[in-house]
Hints:
The chain is an all-alpha fold. The protein is built from 1 helix and no strands. The protein is rod-shaped, with a radius of gyration of 18 Å.
Amino acid sequence: MDLVGLGLEVMGMGLAGVFVVLILFYFMIKLLIKVFPPKEE
C-alpha cells in the first residue's frame, strides 16, 4: 500500500504543478492585454 500512496502523492504534485502553470499563464495574458491593448479601428 505504500507504493500506491507514493503514486498518489506524485500524481497530486504533478496536478498541482499543472494548475499553477495554467494560472500563471492566465495572469501573464491578462497583464499583456493591459500593457498592449488591442487597437481599435
